[in-house]
Amino acid sequence: MIADRARFRNAKKIERLTGYRLPELAFSGTMLEALCSRLDYDSLDYGVRDQILGFFNDFLRCSCKDSPLCGCPEKKFSKKVIELRENGLDHRQIAAFLLDEYGIEVFPADILSFLEESVHVLEAMSDVARLQGKEDLAKKTDEHIRLIER
Predict the structure, then answer these.
(1) 17-70 pLDDT per residue, tens
(2) Closest C-alpha among 8, 3, 4, 2 to residue 101
(3) Which of 59, 80, 81, 93 is 20 to 30 A away from residue 71, measured at CA?
(4) Does 133 map to a domain?
């Protein structure tokens, strides 16, 4: 999953504020818990605080009992990457957007691999939908494939 490749550029700043070592991985359990409970956002400089709050608002807000360790943040991140691609950004532009918007670094090659895997999954879904006579679902998946591959 693409969320496993996402790293915070400012992980060291977050680590200093929490007072203990944190992994750079944006979606690691320790990092997510630190962002949700132990971080004094007012101590961050404006740019980093804005990125962390954007990350929090876009990926960590859910009503699950086990939040933020429920899996929703990773799914939302994957969905965001696909939405950015469907809106016309290429893998390099997606990487630049994620860095600017959230302070998250993801290699463009990892994004490209994720998008290719997503197309394969959608193709399988389309085939199964057709076999089951669900043409509406097949058409929706075909449209997503078209938007990702363009």
Answers:
(1) 888 888 999 999 989 888 887 677 788 888 888 999 899 899 988 888 887 888
(2) 8
(3) 93
(4) no
In a domain, 25, yes or no: yes
The alpha helices in the chain, defined as continuous H runs, are: 11-18, 29-33, 46-55, 72-86, 91-102, 108-131, 135-149
Q: If 0-12 CB within 10 Å is exposed, 13-18 middle and 19+ buried, where does residue 40 land?
A: exposed
Q: Calculate mean pLDDT across residues 80-84.
A: 97
Indicate the number of domains in the chain: 1
Which pLDDT score, from 0 to 100, does residue 38 have? 65
Q: pLDDT tens, 108-130?
A: 999 999 999 999 999 999 999 99
- Tracing tokens 């956002």 back to the chain, one arrives at 41
Q: Does residue 22 lie within any of the structural domains?
A: yes
Tokens representing 133? 């006579």
- Are 113 and 66 spatial neighbours (Cβ–Cβ below 8 Å)? no
**How distant, in Å, are the alpha carbons of 34, 82, 101, 118 from that of 23?**
11, 25, 20, 27
Q: How far apart are CA 94 and CA 15, in angstroms?
A: 26
